[in-house]
Amino acid sequence: MESPANAQWQMADPHVFWGEIAPTEHVVQIYENDESFLNVLGGFVSSGLTAGECVVLIATTPHLNALTDLLNKDGFCVAELAADDQLILLDAEQTLAQFMVNGWPEAQLFNTCVSGIIKRAKDRNRPVRAFGEMVALLWAKKEAAATVHLENLWNRFCETQAFCLFCAYPKIGFTQDVNTSAHTICCAHSKMISGEQKSATRIFYKTAV
Q1: What pLDDT band is residue 195 in, cutting at 50, 70 and 90?
Q2: Domain presence at residue 4
Q3: Dist. CA 143–CA 145, nearest whole Å
Q4: Which tens digit of pLDDT belongs to each residue from 133-191?
Q5: b/e per residue, 19-42, with b = 16+ CB within 10 A?
Q6: Residue 120 sits in which domain range?
Q7: Which of 35, 83, 169, 173: CA 20 to 30 A from 182?
Q8: Residue 79: which CATH number?
Q9: What DSSP string describes 67-116?
Q10: Residue 100: inside a domain, yes or no?
Q11: Confidence bin at 97 (pLDDT 50/70/90)
């Protein structure tokens, strides 16, 4: 299989890309700025909601607020979706704290925490997709080993559950060329989205492992 450095970038319509994504995919974006990140995240969320899926967002407060504004402007009623549990909004710091022990993600606590979230998401027999920003919080604290461990916990959990998982990291947290310093991060995922998205009308992606 191609390495992240050698894989070829492909272009797709965001609605097609997110609409056809397999429920077992683990997708990552290492983004240049919040605009490019929110363009991609907005497509991920809106495609799921339009398809009748439950969307779980575990994100920072600024990103939750920005996405809420974006969805409302696009004609979604966030308050109604949240009340119906079709859109589950969770604070990343608070969720992360539920399973961190001495600066390390504890596997049993993680499984208990995430199992509860996914059970709630599946309660009305909807397909589920989830976005998680907890790994980015650990990475920002220079906790590389804990970040990779958390990614692996997600991967093991997803092996027993059928949902697409998307996570994202700001490029500013990487001190070298992304394909070098982020190699371990990329290899924990099935697809990588370009961090230089300039519009919401197209998406560039490639095989990440």
Answers
A1: confident
A2: no
A3: 6
A4: 999 999 999 898 999 999 999 989 988 888 899 999 988 766 655 455 566 677 778 88
A5: eebeeebbbbbbbbeeebbbbbbb
A6: 10-207
A7: 35
A8: 3.40.50.300
A9: HHHHHHHTT--HHHHHHTTSEEEEEHHHHHHTTEETTEE-HHHHHHHHHH
A10: yes
A11: very high
Residue 185 lies in a domain: yes
3-class SS string, the chain: CCCCCCCCCEEECHHHHHHHCCCCCEEEEEECCHHHHHHHHHHHHHHHHHCCCEEEEEECHHHHHHHHHHHHHCCCCHHHHHHCCCEEEEEHHHHHHCCEECCEECHHHHHHHHHHHHHHHHCCCCCEEEEECHHHHHHHCCCHHHHHHHHHHHHHHHCCCCEEEEEEEEHHHCCCCHHHHCHHHHCCCCEEECCCCCCCCCEEEEECC
Q: Determine what percent of the chain falls in helix, strand and coil, rounding each to the nearest 5.
A: 45, 20, 30
5 within domain boundaries:
no
First-to-last alpha carbon distance for the chain, in angstroms, is 7
197 pLDDT band, cuts 50/70/90, is: low
Q: What is the mean pLDDT of the chain?
A: 87
The residue assigned the tokens 């363009």 is 39
Query: What's the structural domain count of the chain?
Result: 1
